[in-house]
Amino acid sequence: MKTLLLALMMIPTMSFAQGVVTARAVIRDAGFNANIRTVELKHLTSSERFDGEFFKVVKGKEGVAVSMGDADRNLVLRAATTYFHLNKARDYFVDKLGSTYVAALPKIIVRIEHTNQFNELGHFAHDNLEPQFNNALTIPAGSGIEGRGVKPWEMEIWFRPEKKVHVDELKIKGGNGIGEWGSVLSAFRQQMHMTSMQRFLSQLALTQTSDLPTENVIGWENLVRVAGTSLLLEAVYKYADPLSRAFSRKWFWLDSALVPEIIYHEYAHVALSDHLELSHSSAVIEGMADFFAGQIADSSKLATNIKDHNVFNGKKATRKQQYSVQFETADYANSDFVFGMLWDLRAIVGEAPAPQFVYNLRQKIDTNSTIRKQLIEGILDTCIDLCEHPFVDKLKILQRYNARGI
Ligand SMILES: [Zn+2]
Q1: What is the domain partition of the chain in residue ranges?
Q2: Ligand 1: centre distance to CA 195 (Å)
């Protein structure tokens, strides 16, 4: 770790040649491995700070953008990585999907290393109120409180610092069955934005801890059932920490500002927010965000992984799931199932038209939509508008949903 940091400090991280600004950031190679490489930063309005036309990256509650020359090179790496991938995600929605909503959005403040909880009236919750780690979230705009020094704010994206949590702290050892697992899960929910991607990561961290006493097996099973299994993340987690490259079975952490797919997932919430309000999480809203995270990642390796392992109909999925009404409830929302449903549309409408299909689908649903009713009606409606053979394709879609118990 130390040698790597030293090495990083010795490499000039910025260069200004012909107006092109480059920086070291985490990107994936063709094999989906995370590497630290030099990338070009687009749409910058400053040559010294991570401040651009569409994003300003700040540390915590600060107002000024992170300096490219900051002595904390890991902070600079996080700022460069979020800045680079957020612009990539924004370009995707504007250039590929023609989103006029995204094109007109005000500049977004991106907070890295930010531990405060979100408060919908006060913007930031008090510093002492349960600081947050190992996650990321997108917050809705707020009107502030006049006279109390809380200024109005626009949508923002927050990345929490990583914090290593030992599995023992998660009360896993000595757990004697399902009750104990309930408390583990609720601890997770408090500590993390327990949805889809992040939820899967925590689940994976647990399931890969092989040296547990066997009496906990029922616990593992229960956790898998509740949390669902995911795809996007198996590969992601393995390379979640390009700084240390260490993968530990005993420790869980997530440096969310260094994981491209998490950055895309959060930006997708922003891009879809004209119809999918950022009021709360639901299976539908999280599945939609994951779909675009998978698309923007644009990795054939990842796409194959999602196709094979998704819980909706993946051929190699360890646990295919039938639809259950529980998926509609907030706590047990099964975003993975929705993600699988949406990804499967690529097989029916085609891989190239699928993103536009799912993007248009957002107009037919909202944050309160259920899988069984509004989501399916929305998919069928969108098919009437966009499918090449609407009658046949709608039948195909319905057959697939019937097979999963919907
Ligand atoms: Zn989310």
Answers
A1: 2-159, 165-403
A2: 6
- CA–CA gap between residue 110 and residue 330 (Å, rounded): 27
Query: Residue 311 has what pLDDT?
Result: 74
Q: Which two tokens stand for residue 50?
A: 């991570």
If we measure between CA atoms, which residue out of 38, 56, 44, 51 comes closest to residue 19?
A: 44
Tell me the CA–centroid distance for residue 286 and ligand 1, in Å: 5
- Residue 265 CA to ligand 1 centre (angstroms): 6
Among residues 230, 270, 229, 276, the alpha carbon closest in space to that of 378 is found at 276
Are 386 and 361 spatial neighbours (Cβ–Cβ below 8 Å)?
Answer: no
- Ranges in the chain, pLDDT < 50: 1-2, 6-17, 171-235, 238-240, 244-247, 249
Distance from residue 147's CA to the centre of ligand 1 (Å): 33
- Using the mean position of ligand 1's atoms as its centre, give its distance from the Cα of residue 403 in Å: 28
**What pTM was computed for the model?**
0.82
Q: Distance, CA 269 to ligand 1 centroid (Å)?
A: 7
What is the C-alpha separation between 111 and 28, in angstroms, rounded? Answer: 23
Q: What is the pLDDT of residue 239?
A: 45
10 Å CB burial of residue 101 (0-12, 13-18, 19+) is: middle
Q: Cα of 363 to ligand 1 centre, how many Å?
A: 18
Classify residue 366 as exposed, middle or buried by CB count within 10 Å of its CB (0-12, 13-18, 19+).
middle
Beta 108-112 vs 55-59: how paired, if at all? parallel
Task: Look up residue 403 and give its two tokens.
Answer: 């097979």
Distance 336 CA to ligand 1 centre (A): 12
